[in-house]
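Is this the right way to post structure tokens for a design question? Let me know if I should format differently. Anyway, here goes:
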């Protein structure tokens, strides 16, 4: 986007790309469907999705915001559709269509693309970039845009090189964490339900026993913990929750309610009805089977103190109450995030205090600009992360 914008303004533009092909991560986005922006029309709401740092985007969004992005892609042949959560996807062709359309624009404006050319280092002189060094050459330019992405999914080429370049230019890089990533639990039992996808469940987050937030939707158990849309979204905040301000460790728990639409009383009544219906032959494992998805049965039986073969006729009121409590409050102790290898985005990046929000120009190095995920900006899933790339790329590529 930055290169297209610059070249469309008659700037001689070169993309120096480490990989042989461009847009490896873009091709993976939205599971190959590329959720490239979001149709949220209230700018304040849109910006609030990036947390505190979101306000940095007001200027960029006022020139090339989500609406302009949709119009732009439409104008270059990417028709789009809106789906659940106002997510915008290409109508046809998925990520490949988006990438092809962008590459076509590069061709149209004669952007030179140097493939398989990793930038190894950058030389600075008098507060400016003097030249960049690749494996076999040095290149100099009037203006440089670092758009090397974050450090998640490193096999796509985003290995975090740009953070080092930024540091060498004197920039602060804030702490980097994987984000939109599965979460690890101290307990090992989630693997008993690994692959089990739960819809319409509620996850409540507790820090030192106090509720901080909750989410309703879809989640999944994995071999090491939990994943799925609501967990990935919550993962953004795990680094904040897991440590107190003084650096000491907090107790972070997720509580899973498998039956969020039923009160304890209604669920108790339902279980009693079920027991009565199967009187004479009902067993505890059969009762659980009627209450949860098949892949969850093993896990619930493991977590319950009631023997799985126990005839349900003999279940005490306390055992029924404990079963209700279990279904509505499966506690997991969260002890971290999965690695950058599995994270959709990197939280943290080049400090926004050192970048001019109206130009994306470094405040420390005259001819240096930043665009995309390398900046300390990240949002939830839903098209918010690519929107940062389009908007900051467009601004960084503009002649100032
Ligand atoms: C699985 C997955 C799904 C996603 N789905 C979505 C989605 O649906 N919607 C959404 O909004 N976001 C999504 N994201 C996030 C989004 O894809 C990224 O935020 C976005 O691609 C970042 O773009 P970028 O241009 O800043 O960096 P990248 O896309 O990471 O591109 C950086 C480029 O720089 C190159 N590079 C790195 N170092 C060097 C170097 N030293 N020399 C030369 N070249 C270098 C890399 O090879 C790469 O081509 C997803 C991410 C993942 C991993």
């Amino acid at each position: 986007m930055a290169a297209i914008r610059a070249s469309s303004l008659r700037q001689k533009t070169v993309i120096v790309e480490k990989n042989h092909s461009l847009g490896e991560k873009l091709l993976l986005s939205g599971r190959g469907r590329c959720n490239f922006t979001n149709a949220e029309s209230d700018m304040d709401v849109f910006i609030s999705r990036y947390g505190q740092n979101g306000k940095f985007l007001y200027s960029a969004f006022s020139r090339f915001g989500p609406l302009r992005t949709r119009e732009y892609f439409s104008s270059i042949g990417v028709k789009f559709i809106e789906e659940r959560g106002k997510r915008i996807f290409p109508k046809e062709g998925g990520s490949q269509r988006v990438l092809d359309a962008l590459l076509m624009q590069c061709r149209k404006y004669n952007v030179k693309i140097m493939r398989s050319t990793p930038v190894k280092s950058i030389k600075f002189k008098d507060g400016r970039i003097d030249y960049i060094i690749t494996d076999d050459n040095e290149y100099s330019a009037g203006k440089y845009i670092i758009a090397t992405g974050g450090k998640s999914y490193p096999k796509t080429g985003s290995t975090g090189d740009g953070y080092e370049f930024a540091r060498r230019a004197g920039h602060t890089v804030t702490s980097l964490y994987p984000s939109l990533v599965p979460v690890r639990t101290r307990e090992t039992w989630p693997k008993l339900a690994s692959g089990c996808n739960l819809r319409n469940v509620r996850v409540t987050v507790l820090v030192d026993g106090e509720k901080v937030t909750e989410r309703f939707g879809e989640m999944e158990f994995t071999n090491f913990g939990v994943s799925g849309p609501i967990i990935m979204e919550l993962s953004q905040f795990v680094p904040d929750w897991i440590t107190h301000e003084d650096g000491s460790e907090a107790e972070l728990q997720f509580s899973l309610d498998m039956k969020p639409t039923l009160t304890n009383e209604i669920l108790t009544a339902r279980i009693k009805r079920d027991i009565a219906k199967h009187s004479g032959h009902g067993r505890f494992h059969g009762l659980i089977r009627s209450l949860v998805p098949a892949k969850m049965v093993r896990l619930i039986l493991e977590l319950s103190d009631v023997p799985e073969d126990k005839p349900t006729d003999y279940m005490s009121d306390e055992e029924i109450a404990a079963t209700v409590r279990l279904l509505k409050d499966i506690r997991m102790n969260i002890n971290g995030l999965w690695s950058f290898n599995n994270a959709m985005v990197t939280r943290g990046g080049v400090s926004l205090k050192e970048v001019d929000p109206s130009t994306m120009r470094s405040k420390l190095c005259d001819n240096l600009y930043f665009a995309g995920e390398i900046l300390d900006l990240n949002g939830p899933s839903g098209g918010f992360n690519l929107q940062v790339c389009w908007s900051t790329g467009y601004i960084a590529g503009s002649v100032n």
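Format looks fine. Someone answered above. Worth noting: The longest strand covers residues 210-221. Residues 16-19, 24-26, 28-30, 34-35, 118-119, 147-149, 152-153, 157-159, 161, 344-345, 372-373, 383-386, 389 surround flavin-adenine dinucleotide (CB under 6 Å).
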